[in-house]
């Protein structure tokens, strides 16, 4: 075993000496690998960061389509598609029928219910966190753990973690949303459907015990002024005995990649007593094209690495042919074919491995320049540039160096295999031909 280790170390030393013999050629080859690996590493990290930023930015645009009762008003803005407060509702089980329509990728139900929060009239918007399209993406502050309690809109002066009274039931502020510029969205409180059911159960239990129900009229407002636009005092109470939990105010839809909005709208139009509202078509098309764009970038990087592999293979083919006489002499002196092949492959791995290490530094420098220039510009456009997690950076760095070494092994394998199969006499005579 010790003898084998000594032989292996000797072969590595010979390969390292061969690298030093033609330094200029080794430097140029390492530089080519450095450029390829560095650009690939920088493209991966920058693509990861921009993908997350663009996904977050596009997800904040809300739904592509909204299905609401026919009499409901919908607020269409350049940044968000939201539903105006309404008494009209649809059956919740309609979501299954909508989700079965070809081209519908995700269905997110919402329910708007008027209530009293800290004695003031406000809208509660119930949503399903597992299927949400337009609420959790706007979270700027949140407590750890799953969604519990209330989420305050960006226009409300609520502090994270404080307890507020919602129709007599204490609830904590779980998170806060950023300002969207859409009044009904910024001035509302959000909670899960489960929390809404608990609140309704609490109110009805309090009614059964004879507890006083909270009045819907704030003390500082006139009697004839509705607490919420479009709703009466009697309706501005989540404790209403007529409130049905199996109804929703709207279904927010996100289309599948490649789906056509007109075809989906035509299928939805067959549902009676509903209205379909479409968001900005440019936003929808951009969201659907995002995955295609990222696939194109990955394909471009793959072709670049394939071209680099061909370059390495051609260079080492010339290097091995140049050393046929030396290889033949080594074979004639007793070197085994596998030992000769090990020397050639080790030399290739050293050159490309050093190039990969330098490429890692080159890629990191490119990323820093990108973050300070284009990353800053994208941030101004609302597309945040956030670095991938540390574990992802570490794994990608190790993979970049390992891939560069493997690139040399694969590129030099065919020339080394050809030299391995030749006889010592043919190797010595080949250089003269």
Structural account:
This protein has 433 residues and is α+β, with helices and mostly antiparallel strands. It contains twelve helices and 14 strands. The strands form three sheets. Strands 1, 5, 6, 7, 8, 9, 10, 11, 13 and 14 form a ten-stranded mixed beta sheet that branches. Strands 2-3 form a two-stranded antiparallel ribbon. Helix 7 packs parallel to helix 11 (390-421). The model is unreliable at 213-236 (pLDDT under 50). A hairpin with a 2-residue loop joins strand 5 (104-117) and strand 6 (120-127). The chain starts with a helix and ends with a helix. It has helices spanning 2-21, 23-59, 94-99, 183-186, 193-208, 261-268, 281-322, 324-332, 337-372, 374-380, 390-421, 424-430; strands spanning 65-69, 74-76, 81-83, 90-91, 104-117, 120-127, 139-142, 150-152, 163-166, 169-177, 188-192, 247-248, 250-255, 274-278. It has two domains: 2-58 and 287-430, no CATH class; 65-279, no CATH class.
Layout of strands and helices, then pairs:
Layout: H1 2-21, H2 23-59, E1 65-69, E2 74-76, E3 81-83, E4 90-91, H3 94-99, E5 104-117, E6 120-127, E7 139-142, E8 150-152, E9 163-166, E10 169-177, H4 183-186, E11 188-192, H5 193-208, E12 247-248, E13 250-255, H6 261-268, E14 274-278, H7 281-322, H8 324-332, H9 337-372, H10 374-380, H11 390-421, H12 424-430
Parallel strand pairs: 6-11, 8-10
Antiparallel strand pairs: 1-13, 1-14, 2-3, 4-12, 5-6, 5-13, 7-10, 8-11, 9-10
Helix pairs in contact: 1-9, 2-7, 2-9, 2-11, 7-11, 8-12, 9-11
